[in-house]
Amino acid sequence: MKRKLGTLTGLFVLVLLAAVSPAWSDQVNQADQAADEAAINQAVLNYVNAIYLVKPKLIDKSVSPKLQKVGYAPKSDGTGYREMWMTFDDLKALAANYNTGGEIDPETARRDIVILGQLDQVAIVRLEAAWGIDFIQLAREGGKWMIMNVIWQTYPGQ
Asked: Is the pLDDT of residue 2 over 60?
């Protein structure tokens, strides 16, 4: 009788472990997902805050030196858009100078961030900021989420 009870107990433990393992794995994955989402959001906040707060050092925390950035703003003569390319160094220079006159209030400036898609190695984010809408591609580099590419335009009708 003791042997049967031990076998049944062992079988019960195995069934319980089999049932709990996927749930535990999901919790671990959800925790990883939440941590990644927070890190992605922080990378984008570093990018936008570098510009709003005139803190170019924040660029180093979240933007890859391999950055490719292109933007579209209306031509001054109203005949369409002009294309503007930017490198990592250009972005740091912009962050050092863009809001030095305080034209944008960093406390109230727009920072609407939406993660549009995320995998374990790459993510795409939409950022609505004072200057327009950025679509940002991030990649995990050395365990850290870094901005690799940005394509943006001013708000339509501006």
From this structure: no
Instruction: Dihedral sign for Cα 25, 31, 34, 40, please.
Output: negative
Distance CA 156, CA 53 (A): 25
CA dihedral (142, 66, 47, 96) positive or negative = positive
CA distance 47 to 116: 17
Fold of 2-153: Nuclear Transport Factor 2; Chain: A, (3.10.450)
The 10s digit of each residue's pLDDT in 18-40 is 444 454 444 557 778 889 999 99
* Helix (H/G/I), strand (E/B), else coil: 154: coil
Query: Whose CA is closest to 66, among 137, 117, 129?
Result: 137
User: Is the model's pLDDT at 48 over the cut of 60?
Assistant: yes
What's the mean per-residue pLDDT of the chain?
A: 86
The domain segmentation of the chain, as residue ranges, is: 2-153
Give the span between the Cα atoms of 129 and 112, in whole angstroms.
7
